[in-house]
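Structure (tokenized):
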């Protein structure tokens, strides 16, 4: 099974979700069965490491994002992924525009799927450190529920 997180730049929110989910899957003993990746709908940061502020905030909670590099989402992702989770409604709209008529991937809004009180992970890029903490809080909570769903789908 393959899960893909998508945000705008692929340097803040979706790399954080990738690192958090990968860590939680390892803890749950599911690392070998589920692949996790992330991508962006915009190409400004392709090939770059995650934003230093995302890396620092994640590291303090035990998540290592240092090996991840930004890439652009593509139509091929809809054939190779089972679940594509967008960080906000704008990302979801962009993904729907890219989605081929045929493709196995299920497309959804990450937080809405996991019954959060907010639907979107806010873009922290132009925010202070608090924005990056909020991104982690939202992603950690939804990821716990995502792990339960994935376990049930294996
Ligand atoms: P992300 O955050 O979508 O969570 O990676 C952003 C990163 C960069 C930009 C916007 C959002 N940017 O405009 O360069």
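Design, position by position:
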């Amino acid at each position: 099974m393959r899960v893909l997180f998508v945000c705008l730049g692929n340097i803040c929110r979706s790399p954080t979700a990738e690192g958090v989910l990968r860590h939680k899957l390892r803890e749950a003993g599911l690392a070998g069965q589920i692949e996790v990746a992330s991508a962006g709908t915009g190409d400004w940061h392709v090939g770059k490491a995650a934003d230093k502020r995302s890396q620092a905030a994640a590291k303090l909670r035990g998540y290592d994002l240092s090996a991840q590099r930004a890439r652009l989402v593509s139509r091929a992702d809809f054939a190779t992924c089972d679940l594509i989770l967008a960080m906000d409604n704008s990302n979801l709209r962009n993904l729907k525009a890219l989605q081929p008529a045929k493709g196995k991937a299920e497309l959804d809004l990450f937080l809405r799927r996991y019954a959060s009180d907010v639907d979107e992970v806010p873009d922290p890029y132009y925010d202070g450190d608090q924005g990056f903490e909020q991104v982690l809080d939202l992603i950690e909570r939804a990821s716990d529920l995502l792990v339960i769903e994935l376990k049930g789908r294996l």
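Reviewer-requested clarification: Residues 129-153 form the longest helix (25 residues). Residues 2-153 form a domain with the Rossmann fold fold (CATH 3.40.50.2300).
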